[in-house]
Specification:
CATH topology of the largest domain: Thrombin, subunit H
Structural class: alpha+beta
Number of helices: 6
Number of strands: 16
Shape: elongated
Low-confidence stretches: 16-27, 55-72, 74-86
CATH architecture of the largest domain: Beta Barrel
CATH class of the largest domain: Mainly Beta
Oligomer: single chain
Strand order of the largest sheet: 3-4-7-6-5-16
Length: 290
């Protein structure tokens, strides 16, 4: 350190100051150097400037009214922190997957009641789309529930006006997640057989021999014309599945205020299979439970 710097430091030590330490940045110190004109000794000013140039930041001692280097006292108040996101939702503890199908052009969907019970949120998934849905009605007698999505994704189902499935009729039913594999090539025309109509031993139900498994609850049972003959409910035996019958299904929808389309004419376009028809009206339903 040069003699000028020693004298500058000695001058500061001799000042009658009672202060607290304060760190100043290089930019702020430059201002203080300009204010140092009150220092009489040029050698002291030169020493301070040299210290700033070498160290970049230094520790100064701002004093009281008698200090040779008065520093401006600035106060900065910080605003209290504010939340930037909505409160987190309760974590999902369980996720149930089923199938539903659209029944009109307003976003109404039909599925099995047990598939959407005790859901914190219901999510409809189809062809890359994910939308929230709500449960708007449930049948007290049958395993049926009505959902409402923002819009219809694809086509709406058509129900028969008078045609009813009979024993030994070949039908189609499948979980939505399995439909891509069933549409390969020409697509599957039928994968189940009617064993008992809705007037049989399980009153109000259509019994079919089918290999459908988890995720098929709520899926439509389609006849050879692509018309909905029932809604998959549960498995009664290893090779026997029960579906809520078409009469009970349409009565529930009508009572819920849904305007369905009923027509006995075929709904399969060209060479399209029943697997293609099912994919056009169906979607996956995710029941998220807390």
């Amino acid at each position: 350190m040069t003699n000028a710097q020693h004298e500058a430091v000695d001058g500061v030590r001799r000042s009658r100051v009672r202060t607290a330490l304060r760190v100043r940045t290089l930019g702020e110190l430059s201002i203080e150097v300009m204010r140092a004109a009150s220092v009489r000794s040029p050698r002291q000013r030169a020493g301070i400037c040299a210290a700033i140039a070498v160290f970049g930041v230094v520790v100064l001692q701002p004093g009281d009214a008698r200090s040779q280097f008065p520093l401006p006292q600035t106060s900065r108040s910080l605003e209290s922190s504010k939340p930037l996101a909505l409160p987190p939702q309760a974590p999902v503890q369980r996720q149930l997957k089923s199938t539903a199908f659209f029944v009109d052009g307003a976003g109404h969907m039909l599925t099995a009641r047990h598939a959407v019970e005790n859901c914190a949120r219901v999510v409809v998934v189809k062809e890359g789309h994910r939308v929230l849905a709500s449960v708007v009605a449930q049948s007290s007698r049958h395993d049926l529930a009505l959902l409402k999505a923002p819009k219809t994704l694809g086509l709406a189902a058509v129900f028969p006006r008078s045609v009813v499935a009979s024993p030994n009729d070949m039908v189609f039913a499948g979980a939505y997640d399995t439909l891509p594999g069933l549409r390969v090539g020409g697509g599957v025309l039928a994968n189940a057989r009617v064993t008992t109509s809705s007037g049989g031993s399980e009153s109000g139900h259509l019994a079919i021999e089918s290999s459908v498994t988890f995720g098929a609850s709520g899926a439509p049972v389609l006849d050879r014309n692509g018309l909905v003959q029932g809604v998959i409910s549960r498995r009664a035996l290893p090779n026997r599945v029960l579906a809520v019958g078409v009469a009970e299904t349409t009565s529930f929808l009508t009572a819920s205020g849904v305007r369905i389309v009923q027509d006995d004419r075929p709904q399969l376009a060209g060479s399209a299979s029943r697997a293609h028809r099912a994919a056009s009206i169906s979607a996956t339903v995710m029941c998220l439970q807390n």
